[in-house]
Structures are given as structure tokens and as C-alpha cells.
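User: Please fill in residues for this 267-position structure.
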């Protein structure tokens, strides 16, 4: 753990979290009593899940949870808000600095217009987010393809900010599943929540156009009959176009920066 005195923050290393490390993180949260917890949604979700598994409560819950760096699914959002008793506010941004938007209390993503210019360009029936940074004078990135997909919603929001709003669709283009004909299938973030099964985490990986690999971190009360529900639930979105192989694992492998991605297409 490292303290940032200037910005009044504590930074925690959350790579390779296991139950022991999660308990250590929870101990530090109890000790520090933070006003805001910020980080990857999947990591904060692990903390919230651990709290509920051990029936622990905090003497002081944070005022807000700020997530960033990942698509926050409905399942993760609801689980965090239940376990940490705080509202989740998501921030969408890029290391390249070409697009930035943050949620208000009504859940709408507002663009930071003084920071970037964002366009939505249709390609292969998808609306891709294209961004231009307004602050990088040394090496400006103009009309940069973020690789993300979204939709422009307009300027009206009850919060009164007046900034343009958008919604994120399925995240990165590589999150779309494709069949042999090139047709795109979207597995929404609400997939796990809609199944209502005893699952901690789930990841779908596509290595070819014939099959899908589904990696599952199951809870103790997971039953054999739940496998059929998983297959049926996924086929509602992929139209029975793939063979589904299910693998039970202890944890879901993260990317180099520790990010969690529910769907990964490698084709």
C-alpha cells in the first residue's frame, strides 16, 4: 500500500487477489474508512463479494464507488452496491486521452467537452466511438478509433449539466462474437445477472468460429443442472451457432493491467 499525501489517497496493489489478500484489503478499508473507493469494477466486486460471504459489515461505508478501466456489467454494479452499500459511478476514459465521459447521479455518461471531441461512426452495423484530444499539443491524436462502441443520446439530462450524453453498448469491438459468416453476436453485461445462478465470475473466450470456451468461478451451491441453464442462457444470444465448452476455474485470468473482460474474441 502506498500513500499519496498530495491527493489524499491510498493506493493498493490488487494483482493476484486471493482470499487472504482480500481479507487484508478489507482490513485496510475498515482502518482507513475512505469516503470514496475507486478502481476496476471487477476488483471492487471481489471485495464486496468477500464482505457478503463472511457476513461482515463496515462501521463506515464509503459515500460513493468510482469504477473505471472496464465495462461495468449490471451484475457487478448491483453486487458492489449491495456489498458496499454505496452507489456506483462509472468513468469511461482512455490512456490515449481521446475520449472521456463520467456518470452523473442519474446514470448518464456525460462527455468532458473541454477535454475531448467525440464522434460516433457506423462500421459493420456498429457505432464506433471516435475521439480527438483537445489538450495534447505535442502529438495530437485526431479522430482516434477507440475500439469501443456506444450511442449518442443527446443533451437532456435531469442533472442539468447540459453536456452531451452517451451510452456504452458492448464495449470493445473485440468483445463481439463472430460466426463463420462474419455475423456479430453481443453477449450483454446483464448476462450473468439474468441467469440468477450461483456464479462469482464468468468469462467467454472465442478462439475459432465453431466453439466458445466458458470459464466459470462457481459458488459452493452450484449444481449440475445449472450447466444446462448456462448453455441455454448463452444460446439465447448466440443463436445456437457454437459448441459451448464449460471449464470450472478458481479465478478468471486478468489482462496485463489487471483488467477483467467478460467476453474475449481472438478471431
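Assistant: Residues filled in for all 267 positions:
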Amino acid at each position: 500500500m502506498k500513500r499519496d499525501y498530495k491527493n489524499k489517497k491510498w493506493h493498493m496493489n490488487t494483482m493476484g487477489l486471493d482470499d487472504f489478500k482480500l481479507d487484508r484489503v478489507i482490513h485496510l478499508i475498515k482502518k482507513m474508512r475512505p469516503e470514496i473507493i475507486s478502481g476496476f469494477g471487477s476488483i471492487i466486486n471481489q471485495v464486496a463479494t468477500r464482505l457478503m460471504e463472511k457476513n461482515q459489515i463496515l462501521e463506515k461505508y464509503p459515500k460513493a464507488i468510482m469504477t473505471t478501466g472496464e465495462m461495468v456489467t449490471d451484475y457487478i454494479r448491483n453486487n458492489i452496491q449491495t456489498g458496499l452499500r454505496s452507489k456506483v459511478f462509472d468513468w469511461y476514459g482512455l490512456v490515449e486521452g481521446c475520449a472521456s465521459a463520467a456518470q452523473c447521479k442519474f446514470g448518464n455518461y456525460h462527455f468532458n467537452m473541454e477535454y475531448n471531441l467525440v464522434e460516433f461512426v457506423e462500421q459493420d452495423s456498429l457505432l464506433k466511438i471516435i475521439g480527438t484530444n483537445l489538450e495534447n499539443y505535442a502529438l495530437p491524436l485526431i479522430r482516434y478509433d477507440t475500439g469501443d462502441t456506444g450511442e449518442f443520446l443527446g443533451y437532456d439530462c435531469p442533472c442539468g449539466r447540459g453536456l452531451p450524453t452517451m451510452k456504452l453498448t458492448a464495449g470493445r469491438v473485440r468483445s463481439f462474437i463472430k460466426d463463420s459468416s462474419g455475423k456479430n453476436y453481443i453477449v450483454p453485461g446483464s448476462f450473468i445477472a439474468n441467469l440468477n445462478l450461483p456464479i462469482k465470475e464468468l468469462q467467454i473466450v472465442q478462439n475459432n468460429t465453431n466453439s466458445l470456451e466458458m470459464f466459470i468461478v462457481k459458488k459452493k451451491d452450484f449444481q449440475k443442472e445449472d450447466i444446462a441453464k448456462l448453455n441455454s442462457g448463452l444460446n439465447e444470444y448466440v443463436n445456437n451457432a457454437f459448441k459451448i465448452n464449460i471449464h470450472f476455474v478458481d479465478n478468471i485470468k486478468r489482462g496485463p493491467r489487471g483488467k477483467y473482460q467478460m467476453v474475449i474474441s481472438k478471431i
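For context: The chain has three domains: 2-90, 109-170, 177-265.
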